[in-house]
């Protein structure tokens, strides 16, 4: 199975993969998607993944030649998480979940344990996901991350979580309103100092926009952004409002497979591509 192949490689690469995996800046292509309406994601492409293969064995080099798709689900867990998991299981596809711990999804928080047990990657997003709070200052941001880690700690080994995704993306400008123009730059630097890896996305499903696209539209959005890319980091959402994402998911998976992509988690992808800090 494709998935096993990557899992096997991942184990072989072991520490190399996880800890060499570094600063990953993906293009935020959220042009007209106004996720959460007040969000203002940027659309500056950044082909950070055109990278040299560092010291890699033959198997790793071969993996670099593969087309890779990383399905990433933000803002969960939610009432849709179990459906998402069951589809991923059916297709034997790994994914990455950038989770939150808001009031609205707190009843579903224990599901992070199931997500992890099924071989998916748990990564940090935000506890409150409230821009006016988390981006008020760098201190406020890290307090929110601390709260998220605490909320997750009964269910998963939070010490092993190394990846995060900034709400709105690393180049969002909404944060400037609350924390000043330099806040994202500061947060990125601090994240790296704290040993976190962070990642945006370069394919956007636009599944959480105010227009509430149907499953067919979501698939088309993905196909549009994925065109010509060997590496797709796909932004999807796992919330109460994104039932159409669940509906689209089998078609999304089948389309990527028909285009010759292999699915991996974000950390597996970073390992396979030999990403390192400073390769931006
Ligand atoms: Zn989010």
List the helices and strands and how they pair.
Layout lengths: L1 H12 L1 H6 L37 H7 L2 E8 L6 H11 L3 E6 L10 H7 L3 E6 L4 H4 L3 H15 L10 E2 L9 H6 L3 H11 L3 E2 L4 E2 L10 H12 L4 E7 L5 H16 L2 E3 L2 H7 L8
Parallel strand pairs: 1-2, 1-7, 1-8, 2-3, 4-5, 6-7
The structure holds zinc ion.
Zinc ion binds next to loops.
Could you explain how this protein is built, in words?
The protein has 280 residues and is α/β, with parallel strands linked by helices. The protein has one domain (2-272): TIM Barrel (Alpha-Beta Barrel). It is built from twelve helices and eight strands. The strands form two sheets. Strands 1, 2, 3, 6, 7 and 8 form a six-stranded parallel sheet that branches. It has a two-stranded parallel ribbon with strand order 4-5. Helix 4 (81-91) links the parallel strand 1 and strand 2 (95-100). The longest helix has 16 residues, at 243-258. The chain is globular and about 45 Å long. 46% of the residues are buried. Residues 1-53 and 276-280 have low confidence and may be disordered.
Question: Any descriptors?
Answer:
two-stranded parallel sheet, 6-stranded parallel β-sheet, binds zinc ion, TIM Barrel, single chain, disordered N terminus, about 280 residues, 8 strands, alpha/beta
Globally, the shape reads globular
Q: What value does the Rg take, in angstroms?
A: 17 Å
Low-confidence stretches: 1-53, 276-280
- Helical content stands at 40-55%
Query: Quick one: CATH superfamily?
Result: Glycoside hydrolase/deacetylase
- What is the CATH fold-level name? TIM Barrel
């Amino acid at each position: 199975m494709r998935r096993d192949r990557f899992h096997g490689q991942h184990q072989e690469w072991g520490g190399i993969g996880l800890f060499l995996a570094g600063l990953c800046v993906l293009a935020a292509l959220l042009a007209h998607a106004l996720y959460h309406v007040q969000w203002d994601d940027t659309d500056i492409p950044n082909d950070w993944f055109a990278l040299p293969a560092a010291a890699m064995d033959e198997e790793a080099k071969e993996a670099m030649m593969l087309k890779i798709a990383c399905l990433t689900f933000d803002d969960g867990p939610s009432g849709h998480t179990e459906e998402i998991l069951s589809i991923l299981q059916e297709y034997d596809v790994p994914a990455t979940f950038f989770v939150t711990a808001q009031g609205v999804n707190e009843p579903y928080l224990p599901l992070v344990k199931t997500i992890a047990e099924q071989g998916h990657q748990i990564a940090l997003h935000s506890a409150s996901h409230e821009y006016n709070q988390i981006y008020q200052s760098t201190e406020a941001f890290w307090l929110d991350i601390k709260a998220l880690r605490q909320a997750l700690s009964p269910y998963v080994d939070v010490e092993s979580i190394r990846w995060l995704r900034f709400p709105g993306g690393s180049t969002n400008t909404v944060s400037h309103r609350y924390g000043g123009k330099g806040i994202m730059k500061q947060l990125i630097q601090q994240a790296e100092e704290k040993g976190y890896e962070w990642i945006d996305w370069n394919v956007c499903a636009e599944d959480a926009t105010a227009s509430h696209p149907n499953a067919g539209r979501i698939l088309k959005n993905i196909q549009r952004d994925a065109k010509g890319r060997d590496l797709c980091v796909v932004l999807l959402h796992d919330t109460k409002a994104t039932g159409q994402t669940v509906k689209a998911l089998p078609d999304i998976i089948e389309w990527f497979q028909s285009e010759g992509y292999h699915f991996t988690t974000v950390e597996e992808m970073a390992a396979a591509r030999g990403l390192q800090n400073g390769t931006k």
